[in-house]
TrEMBL record:
<feature type="transmembrane region" description="Helical">
    <location>
        <begin position="34"/>
        <end position="56"/>
    </location>
</feature>
<feature type="transmembrane region" description="Helical">
    <location>
        <begin position="62"/>
        <end position="79"/>
    </location>
</feature>
<keyword id="KW-0472">Membrane</keyword>
<feature type="transmembrane region" description="Helical">
    <location>
        <begin position="141"/>
        <end position="159"/>
    </location>
</feature>
<feature type="region of interest" description="Disordered">
    <location>
        <begin position="1"/>
        <end position="32"/>
    </location>
</feature>
<keyword id="KW-0812">Transmembrane</keyword>
<keyword id="KW-1133">Transmembrane helix</keyword>
<feature type="transmembrane region" description="Helical">
    <location>
        <begin position="91"/>
        <end position="113"/>
    </location>
</feature>
<protein>
    <submittedName>
        <fullName>Uncharacterized protein</fullName>
    </submittedName>
</protein>
<feature type="compositionally biased region" description="Pro residues">
    <location>
        <begin position="1"/>
        <end position="11"/>
    </location>
</feature>
Length: 176
């Protein structure tokens, strides 16, 4: 009975067995960011305007249904980047007419660049008065109608594609 028991040796942290999770991973909490949503909406608007201009120039005519695609693109980008911020559908709707208008200006510049044998960027930046005047002369009720429909599409897409809120808004206590 003269043998003593040595004290326990603390385990080496590198030798631990990693814990394994069972079940699905926890969902990532999405932060609602108005700035990220606006930045994504502006970038999508510029991309949509260029695509609108190239597509309309390829078929050599403007068509209003492309404004639905521009609006949907802006709304989708705003919702995915900005989360469930309540102002994003309105911001997406407000940015859509500018993107559609820019796309129509690009179309006018691309079509007239072929006719005048100059570059489209020269027409857009150096002869912008000519481009806007040509657009103004060709704009009709359908042009403005499709801008409004594009706005509605942007707002609808931004609202329907936003993620669910992680924390429900607090309800006011109306007890008297």
């Amino acid at each position: 009975m003269g043998q003593s028991v040595p004290p326990p040796v603390p385990p080496d942290p590198d030798d631990r067995i990693p814990e394994t999770r069972t079940g699905p991973p926890e969902p990532r909490r999405h932060r609602d960011s108005l700035a990220a949503g606006l930045a994504a909406a502006v970038a999508a608007g510029l991309l949509g305007a260029v695509a609108y201009g190239w597509l309309a120039e390829a078929v050599n005519r403007q068509f209003g249904y492309a404004s639905l695609g521009v609006g949907a693109l802006i709304g989708y980008a705003a919702a995915k980047a900005g989360g469930a911020h309540r102002a994003l559908p309105f911001a997406a709707a407000a940015l859509t007419p500018a993107a559609i208008w820019l796309g129509q200006l690009i179309t006018v510049a691309l079509i007239h660049a072929d006719l005048f044998r100059v570059s489209a960027t020269e027409l857009l930046f150096e002869e912008s008065g000519f481009v806007t005047e040509t657009w103004r002369d060709s704009a009709d009720l359908g042009t403005y109608t499709f801008m409004i429909v594009g706005m509605m599409m942007a707002a609808y897409t931004a609202w329907s594609k936003r993620p669910e809120r992680d924390d429900p808004p607090e309800q006011p206590d109306h007890r008297d």
